[in-house]
Design goal:
alpha/beta; 394 residues; eight-stranded parallel sheet
Length: 394
């Protein structure tokens, strides 16, 4: 069976983490989301994969290449225009042979795709939607099915007053090739808003498969942190060598001091260094990262080659690759720091602050608002005999 991965997302709501990479390449436990998805497809014997590209395609192709390192075969397609979700799949029609799976490139899941395929064939469905239950469905497409699993009603992103079901569309679809004939060519066309309502009106066999298993659409920064905590706590079955008892994975080339403490779930990447007295709890440490003496890292994700100074504290935050945080500094709750940022010694980044890539935050600075414009944030008002800084902000 074939799969089509929708990997064209901009990741606007994940900025500043996605300023320099497409959303499907955001790391989850030190591996890009796309890597987890391809591995999950391979686990269910889906090895013929089409990846639909749009934003920063070269980063994705450089990582996945021809798919051989995953044991799959990958081809790439890139429409010139934004054709919507269904329109993009229509663009791949000539390469699709038979029944195929559509899956989003920016989600985390361990759902049973083999069972989904068997359901699709057993019910002789033309189009099947993989469903799951969530407490708050207002950010998703909600669905109702009858006793025969046929979809009778659905609504995209309802208001709280419009909610009639907690069953939602996961963005994973099993389709027969004949369904592509109902999608107009070269036009923007969406699965939830356009194709599925049209199929229901035409009395096409449109089915819903409700199943258990982990699924999360990583739509914003808070969900990005939450999915890591779910993975570290063992709620998600991913193809990683995490010890099921200790809930830890430490790369063989990582160097961790015997005087450091690693508590709760943790993933520590290749060539990472953790010095004496450092404390790590429920966190991910990227490849080549360095945690110096006495630093405290709690519920935090550090990407590759991040440097954390002595006595520095981070909590419930994300720090992107090649960022340096000085000694005795602190990044408070829900701090999101972009790539190649430099934060000086004794600085305080207050809660819910975002810093865009390649910014410089001077030593002894208290930063209480997000840092998007300009290159440097200085603690002094007067430098070089003049008033400096961003008007009405600094």
């Amino acid at each position: 069976m074939q799969a089509v991965i929708m990997a064209g997302g901009f990741g606007t709501r994940l900025r500043p983490l996605t300023c320099n990479i497409p959303k499907p390449m955001v790391p989850l436990l030190n591996r890009p989301l796309l890597g987890h998805i391809v591995q999950h497809l391979k686990t269910h014997d889906i090895t013929d994969i089409i990846v639909m590209l749009f934003y920063q395609p070269e980063i994705i192709t450089d990582y996945l290449q021809d798919g051989s390192k995953f044991g799959v075969n990958i081809m790439y397609l890139q429409p010139e225009d934004d054709l919507g979700t269904a329109g993009s799949v229509k663009y791949a029609e000539r390469y699709i042979k038979d029944t195929f799976l559509v899956i989003s490139g920016d989600l985390c899941t361990d759902m049973n795709l083999t069972a989904f395929h068997k359901f699709h064939k057993r019910t002789k469905s033309d189009a099947s939607i993989l469903l799951t239950d969530v407490p708050d469905p207002t950010s998703f497409g909600i669905v109702i099915t009858d006793d025969d699993h046929r979809i009778t009603r659905f609504l995209e992103k309802p208001s709280s007053a419009e909610v009639f079901s907690n069953q939602i569309n996961t963005g994973m679809y099993m389709l027969e090739r004949s369904v592509l004939e109902k999608i107009p060519e070269g036009k923007s066309y969406d699965f939830g808003n356009d194709l599925f309502p049209a199929l229901r009106k035409d009395d096409t066999n449109l089915m819903g498969f409700l199943t258990k298993g982990y699924w999360k659409d990583i739509g914003n920064l808070e969900e990005y942190v939450a999915v890591h905590q779910d993975c570290l706590s063992g709620k998600v079955k991913l193809n990683l060598e995490i010890n099921p008892r200790s809930k830890k994975y430490v790369a063989k080339s990582a160097r961790i001091s015997r005087k450091a403490v690693v508590k709760g779930g943790a993933v520590i990447g290749d060539k990472a260094i953790v010095e004496d007295g450092a404390y790590i709890e429920n966190s991910v440490i990227g490849k080549g990262a360095k945690i110096k003496k006495g630093a405290r890292i709690i519920n935090t994700i550090l990407w590759n080659e991040v440097k954390i100074g002595e006595g520095t504290q981070l909590k419930n935050s994300v720090v992107a690759s090649k960022t340096k945080v000085g000694n005795s500094s602190a990044i408070m709750d829900k701090g999101f720091i972009g790539e190649e940022v430099s934060i000086g010694d004794r600085s305080l980044i207050k809660p819910q602050v975002k810093i865009w890539p390649k910014k410089l935050v001077a030593s002894d600075t208290i930063l209480s608002t997000s840092f998007i414009w300009g290159d440097r944030w200085l603690k002094e008002l007067i430098t070089d005999s003049r008033i400096s800084g961003i008007a009405n902000i600094e």
